[in-house]
Amino acid sequence: MKAKDLYDIAIIGTGPAGATLARLLYPKYNIIAIDKKTPHGDGFQKPCGGLICTDAQKALASFDLTLPKDVLVDPQIFAVKTIDLKNKLIRHYQRFYINMDRHKFDLWLESLLPKTVELHSNAVCTELKRENGGFLISYQDLETKQIRTVRAKFLVGADGANSIVRRTFYPEKKLRRYLSIQQWFPETHRNPFYSCIFDPETTDCCSWSISKDHQFIFGGAFPLDHARERFERQKAKLEEIGFRFGAPLKTEACLVLRPASFRDFCKGEKGIFLIGEAAGFISASSLEGISSAIGSAKTLSGVLNHPRSNPNERYWQKTLPLRLKLFTKVLKSPFLYRSFLRKLVMKSGIQSIKITETLANPPFFAKK
Ligand SMILES: Cc1cc2nc3c(=O)[nH]c(=O)nc-3n(C[C@H](O)[C@H](O)[C@H](O)COP(=O)(O)OP(=O)(O)OC[C@H]3O[C@@H](n4cnc5c(N)ncnc54)[C@H](O)[C@@H]3O)c2cc1C
């Protein structure tokens, strides 16, 4: 193997987790980062609601970063319309999200990488092996179709829900997973809105809709069996209460993880580190994952930039606050997802906003 094929750290995936880690690691390291998305054209784009919650905003602020205007989309939102299809309830709750273009956000994070990081976009990691105290990493350039194999001392799985790093080295780790399906439509609602939908008949997780630059996205996380059928059934129910879909402009799907216990998070070992959703770091109640991706990457950069013995143990200890926080989301879930408890919370009206209905803004559960 040629000297230039040897790296200190290989990062698989440069979503919010991998791009943050690659940006923060000291330039003394020889780093290769591999990601299948492409800066232009119609290559892979991560399906996402594209909302930056306050925790993720705080994580970005902790680096003194500000968001470029062209990452934002229209409109910005102040409230979520929470819809309980089973109990026929609707409530509005204040939210401080930033509505953005997820693909542009990922590309912006990548644009912040120092030149010392060797980034291979439009390249997919195909095989990983442990060898002589390090790792052999094979990846294919999706344009030239050429396969290259490199070696690295440390391997970081920042490759999201369907992580090849986790699947290769921890196949026994079966986290709870859903198929997330999203469709995009031309926006035809009178008032663009953001909604969160609960419909236990089609899924024990949630769905959402959001407007972005005159397009309307409807998506949800569904159990893997008959996911598409469930998705279509829920769409039909929503049409009955006033949602307007029409012909989809595009349909996208990917896995999304949903930790169910404190032990679900995936602990790497012996030079393998998992950050972001690859490690299971995502909220079980809202499926918000950008803040945990950035947070876990920051933690790992601190550990690797200051080498001492047992970096794996140190990383795991330092993620304890994050893991505890995510565990509280597991505990919070029944209040959102058990129909009876959700009904109590929504009926109480606590923290909800009373919406003034006008002719231009009729009640939502009214007919079309
Ligand atoms: C439909 C949907 C909507 C969501 N909405 C929101 C939201 O509004 N707000 C929020 O905070 N969270 C949301 N989430 C969760 C959030 O998207 C993830 O938790 C977050 O993106 C995790 O970041 P990450 O960097 O760990 O992984 P990812 O963002 O998944 O990034 C992984 C990267 O790895 C690359 N990759 C994967 N496999 C390979 C491979 N074999 N070779 C090369 N590259 C590879 C991918 O190209 C990708 O860039 C949503 C999730 C889904 C599925």
TrEMBL record:
GO MF entries: FAD binding
Organism ancestry: Bacteria, Bacillati, Bacillota, Clostridia, Lachnospirales
Protein name: Oxidoreductase
One Pfam family named in its UniProt record: FAD_binding_3
UniProt feature coiled coil, ranges: none
InterPro entries according to UniProt: FAD-bd, FAD/NAD-bd_sf, Geranylgeranyl_reductase
Domain FAD-binding, residue spans: 130-169
Transmembrane segment boundaries: none
NCBIfam families (alphabetical): PRK11445.1
Origin: domain of life: Bacteria
